[in-house]
Amino acid sequence: MKVREVHCFMEALPDAALLVKPNGEIMAANRHAIESLKHPFGEKDITLHIIDLIPERFHSRHDALMRGFVMSGQQRSMGASGNYFPTRLADGTEIMTEISIGKLNVENFREPLLLVILIDRTDKVRLEEELKKRANIDELTELYARTCFMEKLQHEADRAIRYVRPLTIIYFDIDHFKNINDSYGHYIGDLVLRQVGHVCRNTIRQFDFTGRIGGEEFVAVLPETSLEAAVMVAERLRKAVKTIHIPNQNDEITVSASFGVTMMLPNECQITDLLKRGDQALYRAKSNGRDRIEIEIPSTSL
Hints:
Layout (H helix, E strand, L loop, with lengths): L2 H10 L3 E5 L5 E4 L1 H7 L21 H14 L3 E3 L5 E5 L5 E11 L8 E8 L1 H15 L9 H18 L3 E8 L2 H8 L1 H18 L5 E4 L4 E7 L3 H16 L2 E4 L2 E4 L2 E7 L7 H17 L5 E4 L6
Parallel strand pairs: 12-13
Antiparallel strand pairs: 1-2, 1-6, 3-5, 4-5, 5-6, 7-9, 7-12, 8-9, 10-11
């Protein structure tokens, strides 16, 4: 193939394309590459290498992939996540691209040249991340949604069993939440849920996490935490929830919550048993007047 034919082929491509020497020097770029990547391809006295398009933190990975490609000679895609690889624009910003590399035998060149095609997948990556976030995070409270929360709890439970470390949970729900919805409407109910989520995110410790597992039910997971310390965290949460005041016309809605605290046993295999005990302690808190904390001490016979 002649150089002129390669250039015509590149210009016909719908995506950014670069013609690269085996040493990484960029010989030519098509119009799409010039417009989308904004690097000064082909300008006099400016030599660019493919590594100039790769963020520094990925240089070693890029080099390894390129060496593997040159040695194998097989056309391939390369990427840091799936088939996507960060590509640096001239202004320093980054886009996510799908990069395909192939070899071309070009007239008057002893070694094959590399044809690098870059397809911008930034919007696709952002959409995938947003969908993943929506699946993992409860929209109202911005806490973990049930499925994601259960996976994280199982992971922490496995770790606690493996290393014989303490793990406690705080199971709580909003007092009289149905009455709030019935009396003031679901809009106010949603505001209450948002405020409770905000309180949780700002009250529990950085290494703890909370999930919304039902309508007004929540569970906070406290790794490496004794039962006594978990009760102190629950008391902070209880007091913080009581600071929530939502204006409503001439009225002001106050909020409280009831809490059940329990811990995992070293020989306990099922997180459902742990959650059941937390729920039992919560039920006692509600039966004994609400806006309080009850503790369920697990039987060592489990």
